[in-house]
Amino acid sequence: MATTWLNHLVVEKGASPNTVSNYRRDVRRYLDWLADAGIEDLSAVGREHVEAYLAHLRSHLAASSASRALIVARGLHKFALAEGVIVRDVAADVAPPSPAQHLPETLSIAEVAALIEATPSGDAATAVDVRDRALLEVLYGTGARISEATDLTVDDVSDNDGILRLTGKGNKERIVPIGSKAQAAISHYLVRARPVLSRGKTPALFLNTRGGPLSRQSAWVVLKRAAQRAGLGKSISPHTLRHSFATHLLEGGADVRTVQELLGHSSVTTTQIYTHVSADSLREVWHTAHPRA
């Protein structure tokens, strides 16, 4: 049943290899726990067993990890019910724990400018410098995930007319505007730098020094190197520019639904974390500027 469900996620739901790998691990954890409890068949599982499994998870996992593992167990039961393997979904009403909400690390507009401009430009710039600047402009200009940026091809940015098509999680496509600075950086990269890096082997937009597609790990190194050059002194993650993109849009007056579409979030709830960041910024300004703060 577990294998059938995982195959269903790939074929019918378009789940990514990473998602399926994580689900396979979590479903194996659940089935092993049931086996240790003497339960070999999902039809023999009661709600008390699922609740005991959740308690087991909470005893040695963070709330976020326990929540994901329980969601996987619930998904298995839901699929088994739909397939007629069980007659009652005993896991449906067992709620996952609420993970502690951590506000994402963001950069100010000035810090983003410093990050991008710390990469050499003009006559002193190498092909790698030109590539790095284009990558940073795309990440901040579109809110793309690093994997979405590294998956771009030359055709994706040719004659884009100010619009970029990104392929996100589950192979879902979305359209995002791309600003003039990012377009100019891409054009400069295509003319000056990509021909230097290319070995004619791949249509990928961003290339490494061997002429192959730039990996996500290498793109993260680009980001960290730029942060060091800019002297930001902040912990930079692969999502830092994406978080900053969303926060700056909301602070500039964009509504949360628009930002949801631009980020490719399936639920507005995921996007709403950025409204807390913006509220914190407003509160800080108020405390600084209001005479009776």
From TrEMBL:
<keyword id="KW-0238">DNA-binding</keyword>
<feature type="active site">
    <location>
        <position position="145"/>
    </location>
</feature>
<keyword id="KW-0233">DNA recombination</keyword>
<protein>
    <recommendedName>
        <fullName>Tyrosine recombinase XerD</fullName>
    </recommendedName>
</protein>
<dbReference type="GO" id="GO:0007059">
    <property type="term" value="P:chromosome segregation"/>
</dbReference>
<feature type="domain" description="Core-binding (CB)">
    <location>
        <begin position="1"/>
        <end position="81"/>
    </location>
</feature>
<dbReference type="GO" id="GO:0003677">
    <property type="term" value="F:DNA binding"/>
</dbReference>
<feature type="active site" description="O-(3'-phospho-DNA)-tyrosine intermediate">
    <location>
        <position position="274"/>
    </location>
</feature>
<dbReference type="InterPro" id="IPR010998">
    <property type="entry name" value="Integrase_recombinase_N"/>
</dbReference>
<dbReference type="InterPro" id="IPR044068">
    <property type="entry name" value="CB"/>
</dbReference>
<feature type="active site">
    <location>
        <position position="265"/>
    </location>
</feature>
<keyword id="KW-0131">Cell cycle</keyword>
<dbReference type="Pfam" id="PF02899">
    <property type="entry name" value="Phage_int_SAM_1"/>
</dbReference>
<feature type="active site">
    <location>
        <position position="242"/>
    </location>
</feature>
<comment type="function">
    <text>Site-specific tyrosine recombinase, which acts by catalyzing the cutting and rejoining of the recombining DNA molecules. The XerC-XerD complex is essential to convert dimers of the bacterial chromosome into monomers to permit their segregation at cell division. It also contributes to the segregational stability of plasmids.</text>
</comment>
<dbReference type="InterPro" id="IPR002104">
    <property type="entry name" value="Integrase_catalytic"/>
</dbReference>
<feature type="domain" description="Tyr recombinase">
    <location>
        <begin position="102"/>
        <end position="287"/>
    </location>
</feature>
<dbReference type="InterPro" id="IPR011010">
    <property type="entry name" value="DNA_brk_join_enz"/>
</dbReference>
<keyword id="KW-0132">Cell division</keyword>
<keyword id="KW-0159">Chromosome partition</keyword>
<dbReference type="GO" id="GO:0009037">
    <property type="term" value="F:tyrosine-based site-specific recombinase activity"/>
</dbReference>
<dbReference type="GO" id="GO:0006313">
    <property type="term" value="P:DNA transposition"/>
</dbReference>
<feature type="active site">
    <location>
        <position position="239"/>
    </location>
</feature>
<keyword id="KW-0963">Cytoplasm</keyword>
<dbReference type="GO" id="GO:0005737">
    <property type="term" value="C:cytoplasm"/>
</dbReference>
<keyword id="KW-0229">DNA integration</keyword>
<feature type="active site">
    <location>
        <position position="169"/>
    </location>
</feature>
<dbReference type="InterPro" id="IPR023009">
    <property type="entry name" value="Tyrosine_recombinase_XerC/XerD"/>
</dbReference>
<dbReference type="InterPro" id="IPR013762">
    <property type="entry name" value="Integrase-like_cat_sf"/>
</dbReference>
<dbReference type="Pfam" id="PF00589">
    <property type="entry name" value="Phage_integrase"/>
</dbReference>
<comment type="similarity">
    <text>Belongs to the 'phage' integrase family. XerD subfamily.</text>
</comment>
<dbReference type="GO" id="GO:0051301">
    <property type="term" value="P:cell division"/>
</dbReference>
<dbReference type="InterPro" id="IPR011932">
    <property type="entry name" value="Recomb_XerD"/>
</dbReference>
<dbReference type="InterPro" id="IPR050090">
    <property type="entry name" value="Tyrosine_recombinase_XerCD"/>
</dbReference>
<dbReference type="InterPro" id="IPR004107">
    <property type="entry name" value="Integrase_SAM-like_N"/>
</dbReference>
<comment type="subunit">
    <text>Forms a cyclic heterotetrameric complex composed of two molecules of XerC and two molecules of XerD.</text>
</comment>
